[in-house]
Amino acid sequence: MRSAKPWFPAQRDMYVTNEITPAEYMDLRKIVGWGVFPLEEAEEGLKHSFKWCIREDGSGRPIGLARLVWDHGYVMYL
Predict the structure, then answer these.
(1) CB within 8 A of 63, min separation 6: which ones?
(2) What is the helix (H) or strand (E) element at residue 25, kind and residue range?
(3) Which of 64, 15, 23, 54 is nearest to 41 (CA)?
(4) CB 34 within 8 A of CB 27
(5) I need a surface site. Which of 21, 34, 40, 74 has the fewest CB within 10 A?
(6) 8 A C-beta contact, residue 46 and residue 25
(7) Is the CB of residue 14 less than 8 Å from the CB of residue 54?
(8) What is the side-by-side order of every strand in the sheet holding 76-77?
(9) What is the pLDDT of residues 22-49, one digit of tens each?
(10) DSSP secondary structure code for residue 8 in this structure
(11) Hey, which residues does 64 pair with through a beta bridge?
(12) Residue 25 CB: number of other CB atoms within 10 A?
């Protein structure tokens, strides 16, 4: 019988923070193939959203990000 591969290829120690720099955010966008834009625009967007940044323990390198943006009313996007 063949054993199933783990969904996460390598075990890593991680932690979550609510801080990410605009440069780190742009690096993550590049990695996943999303468009990039000026750091000033990224900074404004990050200021006005809740964020959860998953970082690798030891290096502190960001490896994932979730953002919650909303219209300050009733519409929210995760």
Answers:
(1) 12, 14, 54, 55, 56
(2) helix 22-31
(3) 23
(4) no
(5) 74
(6) yes
(7) yes
(8) 14-17, 50-56, 62-70, 76-77
(9) 999 999 999 999 999 999 999 999 988 8
(10) S
(11) 54
(12) 21
Q: How far apart are CA 37 and CA 26, in angstroms?
A: 8
Residue 6 to residue 12: CA distance in whole angstroms: 13
Pair type for strands 50-56 and 14-17: antiparallel
The structure's pTM equals 0.76
Amino acid at 16: V
Both tokens of 25, joined, read 């955010």
Q: Which amino acid is at 9?
A: P
The answer to whether the beta carbons of residues 77 and 70 sit under 8 Å apart is yes
**Could you tell me what percent of the chain has a pLDDT over 70?**
85
Structure tokens at 16: 């979550």
